């Protein structure tokens, strides 16, 4: 079936000397894997070689349970600043990898597409606080796909975070916060510092539509917590994580 979708390129691989296999996140149908025949030729009919981070209008023929065929891809957004700064570039590549690893094919999440589109645009903004943008992206992605639980109360007993009076933990198996009394019931857990708790409050406020800020020190700690959660869920550490950490993006 021939389809036209807004799309962001998440992954590419060589298929032959002249062709590629590309994975796109589309707004309407989710992840699609396509053969881009002849895309590496100088005068390709499909629009030319496709690279990571490109966003535009995608025309393709889908095939149930098999690679589809790319008909045409026209780039509509150019984010040149991503190529000029390592922190921005690695943060953007981390967002791509996390998205691609977290979603299944043929499972549309238009809100995730919009989230990724906005994050890439923010990474391209020279005034954007990159660690805070990464933290918000991770938080909202995990929330949208149902993998981030209660971040204001204990996920076991329901005790409110503000009235706990003791240590608070994050447990990936529980999907969110765990109080000190319930911590023995959590298979995995990491203790949350004051910066992590302040970051959780800030992102909870942002999620509720309240104006807030997330300083770099809070964003860095919270990014580590969320990256830990993603690693546990996926069963592996993302390849781009060490680069974005080294560059200061998380």
From the N-terminal CA to the C-terminal CA, the straight-line distance is 41 Å
Average pLDDT confidence is 93
Task: Give the C-level CATH assignment of the largest domain.
Answer: Mainly Alpha
Strand order of the largest sheet: 1-2-3-5-4
State the secondary-structure class.
alpha+beta
Q: Can you tell me the overall shape?
A: elongated
CATH fold title of the largest domain: de novo design (two linked rop proteins)
H and E string = EEEEEHHHEEEHHH
Architecture overview:
With 250 residues, the protein is an alpha+beta fold. It has two domains: 2-77, OB fold (Dihydrolipoamide Acetyltransferase, E2P); 80-247, de novo design (two linked rop proteins). It is 35% helix and 23% strand. The chain contains six helices and eight strands; from the N terminus they run βββββαααβββααα. It has a five-stranded mixed beta barrel. A three-stranded antiparallel sheet has the order 7-6-8, with no helix packed on it. Strand 1 and strand 2 (20-26) form a beta hairpin. Helix 1 (86-102) packs antiparallel against helix 2 and helix 4 packs across helix 5. The chain is elongated, with a radius of gyration of 20 Å. It starts with a strand and ends with a helix. The mean pLDDT is 93.
